[in-house]
Amino acid sequence: MFDSPDYPKSLSEDQFELWMEKGRNSPLSYSYLLIIWSELDEDYYPVFAEEREAIEGFGRYGLSAENQVLVAAYDLFSQTRVA
Fold it and tell me: Using CA atoms, how far apart are residues 52 and 75, in angstroms rounded to an integer?
């Protein structure tokens, strides 16, 4: 995933699937997986959210000077990209 010059580095499909599974199997009622890029760590990490409004709490990759920015957001159950 993210295998283009538009992104800082690629993300393995296996890692993505592990994050999706972790979010779906959580005892908390998460609905969304947010993939965040950390400029400090130079790596992706997952953020799980119950509400879609959580997506708005992050600046967007390529549009924000923040250290942690949203690269993409997915619905955990349909695996549809929502941002």
Answer: 9
